[in-house]
Protein 1
Amino acid sequence: MRLETIGIYCVIVIATITACSGQKKIHYDDLYDPIADVGQYKIPAIDRTPKLCWEITPGIDRANLKEAFLAASITGLTARALQQNKTDVGVWIEQGMDSRVAYQKERASLESRGCRFFAKATPRQLATETFEAVDGIDVTLKTLFDGYILTDLRNNPESGTVAVTASHIYNGIIVDREDR
């Protein structure tokens, strides 16, 4: 009887192994969409070159995140306005990396396409002040924005993340509560 039981178990094990080996193996990569670049990794290109370009010269560093958010939102929203033919002005952020080759090449590319860097300003000046036209071109940027997205980086650091998302949706520059 014991030999019969062992024999039955052996038959079951052999049948299981045989049945399992006949199945096609499923690879992990087949369970999900293949990794492919279908545009999700591309930064939107600007195919218009600004005629004039502001240079933002703040003390942008990690200690002054609120000014960095303001500068970045002004730059991004101005670039979108340029692309939409609402302005002929661009913004260049100087932040101590202009000595790097990539920055030098990009700046030289802008200049070779006819962009003139005409003045320096702080993000706060560009967000709040009205400027005289330069060569007949309106260089005041504050009229390009519909308002502002308020952050409170001191008490709610996560508000910066929300503001970055909301900025382009509401066409608003990012302003910290302390600077409102």
Protein 2
Amino acid sequence: AVAAAGSGSGSAKPPTPPAPIEYEEVTKTNEYPLGPEGDKLVETYVLGHAIRDLGAIDDQLRKDSKLDQTKTSVTVTFKDGTRSFQVSTPDNNTVRYLLDTASNNVFVVSNQMLTGFENGMSSITLTDPRGIDDKDLESVVLEAIDRTKTIARIETEVENRKVKAWGDPSTNKSEPALANFIDGLANLKATEYFPSLTPESMKRVMRVTYRKGGNSVMGTLSLFKREKAPAAALPEGHDDPANAPKPEFEYFILTEKTHVLAGVKKDAGEQTENNLPNVMSDNPVAPEPKKADPLKMPGGHGGPGKKPGLPPQLQPPGGGDGHGH
């Protein structure tokens, strides 16, 4: 006879349940300048008022307003002190309930006071670090590599039409290299802000002054860099200077709008720095036009193009002479 599994004195003990996973809540504080949408959000607090004052909270009001379920709070710091509120959302999601933790009063307020925070940093942060209107921009003063150079909008003629292009005002000649550089400055966008860093701890790569008509200053942008700390130190005995890894750099910008140093993508900062010797030279070299990919060129009448390196008998139909023959 075969004993049933689990029967008798030798039956296995049930497995011990695993210990519950303990989670640690970590709070990260981000500081960043506000853009136009952020300014509107602040204005709703400065000029804010309640739609209704529901009075002091009690158990029934706490339940009806769902303040007994919420874990959301908002703290606003003014010059004269700090106010903290617990926040809940009713089922219809058209208004919010705020519980003033100091007075224990409950207020009904507009959704606009909270939606900007809930959408996150991307919806209220500063997106254009320059804060200028390109339509008014007439010239740029560039300080880099111990030189100062002015780049201005030059009136030139293209296909019998007068247009404005970036160029050297001393020669009144448009320069594609300078135009490309000005356009590339738009790639220096902030990815993160660092209130604790100072420009004095870094090397300044360049300073740009934006001017409108009459040489009136619209704003400035400075590009800085610093050597990035290595991810891991080399093991003892392996720190041969001849084989040491090349230093990596981090790039930062500072403008009147950012107020503090802001990190930018390494590629954008590096490309801007690498372009400076050409841009600051007396005869900047224009960028080479992009070459067309022969594999993507049409072969006439919609036919495929020639395949380089293939003999005529293996060329695709229509690619022999560019006319489908």
Protein 3
Amino acid sequence: MKRLGSLSVAIVLCWLALPGTAFAKSFSLPTAKVVARVQPDGAVEVTESITYSFSGSFTGGYREIPLRPGETISDIHVAEEGRLYRPGASAELGSSGDVDTFGVANLGDRVRIVWHYAAEYESRTFQVGYTLHRFITSYDDVADLNLRVWGEEWTTSLDKLKAKIVLPEASPEVRVWGHPAHVEGYTELDPEGYGASLFATYVPASQWVEMRVVFPTSLLTSTTDTKVVAGDGLDRILAEERAELEAFERDRARREWFKHNLYWLIPLGLALAFLPAAFVALHVWRRYGREPEVPVVPEHIPEPPGEEAPALVGALLEPTGGRVKPDTFTATLFDLIRRRYIDAIATQTQKSTWAGLRHETLDDLSIKLADKDENTLEPFEKEVYAAMRFAIAEGGEARDGGEVRLLLSKLKDVMKGHPQEFHDHLENFKKHVNAAVTQRGWWIGRGLIPLLKAVAVAWFVAIGAFVLAAMTGDGPEPPGWAPYVWGILAAIAGINAILLTSA
């Protein structure tokens, strides 16, 4: 339905009287009454009576009344218990002013009304009045007044709402509707034909309420203060209301269908949230990640097959090609000892315990660099060789004949004293091991391509569905089912995208 007007679309807020107040404060809205009197020329005089129940200290409130092109507002006033507030006060939000004063600011597409008072732990009722011009749409046969009597900008729920539209003359051909249909309430015609009323209970926060009254244009003595549209409008209006009622019934039927089918919709949603990512990962693993079939080896073999370095074997045994464990660094050290690039002599060292009262003899190794060409080593082996050269120079002890050797038991102390040096050697070691594994073609990266494509598609669907959910749910009309469907799709795609990204 195309809405023709908007009355209470702006929020009424209160602000602190004492900014430094340490305790929490709030207000509730027990009742609101809106009376709109249609004048013979089509102008609409509106009086809003809004009751607050304050818990804490409050000093001001405001209303913003939106205006579309061609619409104007006049005769603005604020009152309380028959006492008129004085005009001329500041209309800035959060401003202070004398009690019983108000100010008005024209913001172009809306008019702001700010009033000042002093309230603390009490109930107060404020009346805000104004006249709307060119607000009614008049056709040849009927005049259409579509009044938003409560706005969606309220952050506090309203317990009771009563709205009344009073016509200048009585007619038996008056029609009334209340929107939206899901708000608890009802409408009724004046028994004498002078208008209609709307009643609503517990209007939730951020929920608007509209009242639409259609009456014969002949009740107006003049249409000078209305928006005149040539032709008849009743059939068009009735079609709009039928369409809105049918849409509400469809939504209600869908809600009932979902309610009675949750027993399989919830498992389906959970399955859709995880299975697509699982299937993609399974496909990539079956296509690219499975270990190849190899012949059965004998139960006992005389020595490990092949001549590959321990670091490469360790990397090959890891589940991914990007991880090289630090223990392969140690394995490479002993492999260099085995291959005589590093000379090692078995020895024994004394370890003191119990504050020197006890001594323990431990087996140890005394190492030095051998006279072999280090250029024959692999790049990752050179990093271990260089690390040992540094360790021997820093922590080694000179022996007879000027020979410098390092006890392996002291290697840990040298590493603690020069952490950055050994960290750099370890990182370079890992990089060179991965480069050697890649060069040998042991790791095939083609499986990453379909996985990245699936990740891109999942994130694209998730972000697109989220944007569509926000776009379809952001508007003055009830959102319907579209934002919920897009939101569920965004959640499902987002979970799959997260699972695939972490795979």
Protein 4
Amino acid sequence: MMQAHGPCPLCAAFDPPRADAGFNNFGEYVYFECPRCGPFQLKEMPGWEPDEEEALELSGAVRMAKDDDRQVPRITAETIPGLRAMARRPRSGGAFIDRVLEVLAELCKYPGRAMPQCRPDHLAARACMPTPAFIILLRMLQEEKFLGIAELDSVRLRAYLTTVGWARVDALARGGIRSKRAFVAMAFNPEMKKAYNEGIEPALLECGYEPPFLVDDPVHEERASEPDYQRKIDDRIFAEIRRSRFVIADATFRKVNVFLEAGFAEGLGLDVFWCCRSDQIEELAFDTRQIGHIVWTTSEDLRLAIVDRLGRRGLRLA
């Protein structure tokens, strides 16, 4: 039996009117039962007040734990980073749309079948969105023919994906759209080692992408026993590009392989981010020089520019 009621310390940060949560005190922890987030324990942390992004991600992590029948999460200063990583908030409008479609697809399971009736705020939590914004997005997706809505109000939601919606979900599962991989095309030249080791690779890791990024990285050999492992390096190049979300193409030294790999990626519809060392930018052919390159002088210049470019394009995952 809950002893008291009040605003949830998570969703009260972003979701007016504030959700009414029941709570009990258990020593150093307060146990909350929130209609949106689900149950969680919160350790007293004087001065802690989550901002909107932190609250959305913690709300999502708690909701996922409830839906997946996992242990009730304990929110402490030590557990907050791990919980937020479980429900990382999308970084762009398109990524929010994709997240909502994927959440709905998990419930619909089959084309032509509507999802079971549920509370819209539960799915909003899984999508890391405020509930009012989530409901508006559902209406927009209905107008764009991605889904049909059989029932929708403040406490009831039943919807189904259309053929257009399922096609988008299939594309997300099949391609590099949601991939955490990135491919780097650059000259195999001793002068470029520092640019990669201290510029490109740290930038990609900082943005949440998973190595290996270079086709000759020794990590590839650790995957030699996997069924899809490509032993020929040319085959591996094209396989790795297909798995990737985008390509970093550094045109320094004007190597033919860089232009081939970048062209292949563009043919697949992937983003290509062109880079060139400042002392060589004028040596590029006009056809490629007119593309907006990241022009760098030091490896630190390169790292900062890549992080900034990925952030502005909504491709930063962490």
